[in-house]
TrEMBL record, chains A, B:
EC class (word): transferase
Purpose of the protein: Catalyzes the reversible formation of acyl-phosphate (acyl-PO(4)) from acyl-[acyl-carrier-protein] (acyl-ACP). This enzyme utilizes acyl-ACP as fatty acyl donor, but not acyl-CoA.
The keyword Cell membrane is annotated on this UniProt entry: no
Family annotation (NCBIfam families): plsX
Name the record gives this protein: Phosphate acyltransferase
Subcellular location, record wording: Cytoplasm
GO biological process terms, semicolon-separated: fatty acid biosynthetic process; phospholipid biosynthetic process
EC number: 2.3.1.274
Amino acid sequence: MVSSNAQSPAPRALENGGDVVISIDAMGGDRGPSAVVAGIAESADKNPEIRFIVHGNEAELNRLIAKKRGLAERCDVRHADGVVTMDDKPSQVVRKGEGSSMWSAVESVRQGEATVAVSCGNTGALMALSMIRLRKLPGVSRPAIACLWPSKSAQGFNIMLDAGADIRAEPGDLLQYAMMGASYARNGLDIDRPRVGLLNVGTEEHKGRSELKEAHELITQAAEAGDFDYLGFVEGGDLPSDRVDVIVTDGFTGNIALKTGEGTAKLVGELLREAFRNSFMSKFAAVLAMTSLKRLQKRIDPRRVNGGVFLGLNGTVVKSHGSADATGISAAIKLAFQLAKSGFQERLAARVAQGVGVTEQHDEDGAEPKNEVGP
Amino acid sequence: MVSSNAQSPAPRALENGGDVVISIDAMGGDRGPSAVVAGIAESADKNPEIRFIVHGNEAELNRLIAKKRGLAERCDVRHADGVVTMDDKPSQVVRKGEGSSMWSAVESVRQGEATVAVSCGNTGALMALSMIRLRKLPGVSRPAIACLWPSKSAQGFNIMLDAGADIRAEPGDLLQYAMMGASYARNGLDIDRPRVGLLNVGTEEHKGRSELKEAHELITQAAEAGDFDYLGFVEGGDLPSDRVDVIVTDGFTGNIALKTGEGTAKLVGELLREAFRNSFMSKFAAVLAMTSLKRLQKRIDPRRVNGGVFLGLNGTVVKSHGSADATGISAAIKLAFQLAKSGFQERLAARVAQGVGVTEQHDEDGAEPKNEVGP
C-alpha cells in the first residue's frame, strides 16, 4: 500500500504560524503505537509549536489519539498497512517496504511536508530507506548515525559518530563526520565552538592505523574553516568525559563502544540495586537516598538521551530506541524539534559543501539561521 | 647496565619444595618501588608458596624489603640501573633497554629462573621487550593481551583479548586468540569448558566485516578440538554479561572497548558519589549503606581485576596497571601465581600447536597437568 502523500508533493499546509512539523512512524517500536502516541502526547503538552504527521494503522491511531485531550487537532494521521519488523533485512525493506509506516514517515520529509522524521523501528532498515528515498547530500559518501553519550560535560552529553551506519570509514568519511558532528553539536546542543576528537588507541600522533593518521591530517586542516577546535586523538575513556564534545570514529568501533558503555552502565546499576537489597540497613538507606538515586538515574537514563540522528542525507531522520517508552519517544521528538527549529538541515548541507572544498568558504553557521525551516 | 642473570642461564635454585618463583619489575609503575614492594609483601603474607626475584635499584629495594618482616628471605634482589618510563617508545626500549629493570624481569623468565614476570611499566615497551626476548610461540603470528572484565558471571569476570597488543588481526589471529583465551579461562579462571564469542556489531551471521566472517568459520571448526563452546558473534553489551566467558576481538577494538568500559564505570561511580553528597538525608543514607556500597565497590574495583596477560610467547608475562597500588600489584601477583601453578605456559603451547593443525589432536588440557611448572 502506498500512503497518499507518497504520490504527489503536498503543500506545507500544516505549518501554520511557524509551527514545526515532525513526521512520526508510529508502528515499528517494540511497544507498539500506544507508546508512540503517548510520547507524542507528552511532547505536544510540553511544546505548543509542534504539529505531527503520524504514520500507521489509521483506525488504531485515531482511536489512540482521540483518547488524549486536544491531540487530534495537532495530528494528521496517514494510513499505512505495512510494518517493518526488527527482523526484516534492510535489503528486503528497500525492495518491498513501500506500503510501510516507516517508508511513509520518511516520505513526508522527502516531500517537504515535515522537517524531521522520527522512528523507533529497525535501524538498518530505517537507514537503508532513508538513503534510498532522501538520497545522500552531495559530496557525502557515507552517512553516519550520531548518538548522544551521557557525560560530565556542561550539556550532560557528548556526541559520538558513526554509531553504526556503516562498518567502514575512509579518512575522507571521518573528516565529514567531524564536520557534520560539529554542526550537530552547534545546532542540537548549542555549543558555539565544539571540541572534536578522533577516537584511537592512544593520544600520541604515531599511534593507530594508517587511515587514522590520514584522517588526523585532514581534520587538522579543516578545523579552522569548520569552526571547531580539533583536539587530535582521544581514547575510549574520553567518551563520557568533559574534555571533548564530538567523538569521531568508524561505525564498527562506534557501535562496539556504544554497546559496551550501555552494558557497563547497566551492570553497575544492577549491582547497585543488589547492594541495596542486601540487608535491612541498606534497604532503609535506599529509601532515604531515593531522591539522590533518582537524580542519578535521571542523569544516566538512556531514555533521556534517546535519539540517534542520521547525518549526511537530504533530510533529517531521528532514530529512537526500539524499546523506547513514552518518555524516550518524547525525548527523541524534542531532539527532532530542536534540530528543525535551528535550521539544522540547511546548515549541515552548507558545512558538508565546505568540507568538500575544505577551506573554500567560512560561513557563519554558528550565527543566526539563514534559512529557517518552515515558512 | 646488564643485570647479572642476563649473562648465563641460572639454575632454578630458588624453587625449593614446589615453590613458585615470580619475577617482578619493581621500578616502572607510577607509584614507584615502594608500592611494588608493598604489593609483594601482601602477596607473600597470603601465599607461603611464592618466592620472588625483584628487579631494580638494589639499595632501594633492599631497604624497602628489610622493612617488611620475613620478606627478605623470600626475595632475591637483582640490581638494574635503568628504568623504562611511560613516555619511552617501545622501539627505543628494545634498542637501549638492556640495563633496565623491565628487561631484567623478562630475562628471568627467559632463563627459566622464574615462571611468570610481572611489571607495572609501559605496556608497549613491555610487549616489545617480551616479544624480542621470549619470542613468539611457534605458529603464533600476533601475541595478544588478555584482560579481565568485571561481569555477572559466576567467576566475577570475563576474559577479553586482544586488549591492545596489536591494532590489526587477521582471521587466523582471531582463531588463535580464541584458542589461547579458552586455555587461559581454563587455567586462570578454572572454567572447564569456556564459552567463547567473537565481538561484532550484531549477532546475525551476515553482519560485520569480511575478516570476521572468515574468523567465524575458523573458530566454528576449531571449537570441538579446542574444548570450548563457540557462541558465534557477541556484541559490546555482552562483555560484562554472564552469557560468555571469553570475548575475542582485534587489539584496536579491544582497547577502545576496555577504555570505554573503564570510563563509563568511573563516570557512574562519580555521579553516585555526587548523588550521596547532595543532601543531609543522602549523606546519612550513604553511611547506612556503607557496607553494601563497599561490597559493590569491591566487585567492580579495577584493582582487583588487575593484570593483563601476554599470550602467545615462550613465557608468561603479566602487565599490571601503571597506577596500581599495593592491592592492585598483589592481585596481579596472585594471577601470575595461579597461572604458574596450573602449568599454563605448557598447556597454552599445546593448544596453540593444536590450533595450527586445527583438529589434529585433542589433548586433555582440562584434566590434570602433564607438565607442572617448576620441579
